Amino acid sequence: MSSPSSRPDRFDRLDALRGVAIVWMVGFHFSFDLNHLGWLQPRQDFYRDLFWTGQRTLIVSLFLLCAGLGQALAQRAGQGWPRFWRRWAQVVAGALAVSVGSALMFPASWISFGVLHGMALLLLVARWAAPLGRWLWPLGALALLLPRAVQHSFFDSRWTNWMGLVTHKPVTEDYVPVLPWLGLMLWGLAAGQWLLARRPALLSGALPAPLALLAFLGRWPLTVYLLHQPLLIGALTAVAALRRLG
Predict the structure, then answer these.
(1) Which helix (H) or strand (E) is 69 found in, with range?
(2) Dihedral angle computed from the Cα positions of residues 183, 186, 188 and 126, in that order, rounded to the nearest 10 degrees
(3) Whole-prediction pTM
(4) Residues 130-153, buried b or exposed e (16+ Cβ, 10 A)?
(5) Sign of CA dihedral 121, 122, 126, 129
(6) Tens digit of each residue's pLDDT (9 = 90 or more) over 225-237
(7) Domain residues of the chain, as ranges?
(8) Cα–Cα distances in angstroms (integers) from residue 60 to residues 115, 119, 155, in the given order
(9) What is the biggest distance separating any 2 CA atoms in the chain, rounded to whole angstroms?
(10) What is the Cα gyration radius of the chain?
(11) Each residue of 173-204: pLDDT tens digit?
């Protein structure tokens, strides 16, 4: 049994894929919060353990690939700049909120260029790069490889590390610089254009009903991203307080 799209301009399969990234992200951050409170035993190293750093890389990669696919669909639908700027402004406002919130919670490692900061800039690049067509594939590969070949101490400050050509990873709770992550966005855009031209049914086909909840979540990525951590931390803090009282 399949679930029809709730709106004609929605692609439920892409929404569901984004929903997978959202569920994975929430589970990852829930584990991080448990570890931060000392409730995850044995204690985990989310900053150096490959099990956790690898998951973070995969989650961000999936979000950026979905964002690139989404830009391909927006381009095909003829999305105008006014609608793009409205959505872009929401992402920027979210990025600023993340910076302020992280500075209050982690003053020594606050987020100056995390997922939303990177997403805002990468969406602009993807919008302008969309007409390049098949050239997006090699440009994406170049973006992925360049940070391995070029690093300089000039890019190690908070004012310049957003480029990604750093000599060492900065001390911050989240870091998604332009390079190499632009490569994933461009590949998502290129894949979306290819699918729309040659295999459109893979994107527009019906979604199995059991995956409808994932598609629903995938329609609200920014809202979930901004709210899930305050809700998780608030709930866990309340549980900790009740345990102390008990």
Answers:
(1) helix 50-76
(2) 130
(3) 0.91
(4) beeeeebbebbeebbebbeeeeee
(5) positive
(6) 999 999 999 999 8
(7) 2-245
(8) 8, 10, 22
(9) 62
(10) 19
(11) 999 999 999 999 999 999 999 999 999 999 88
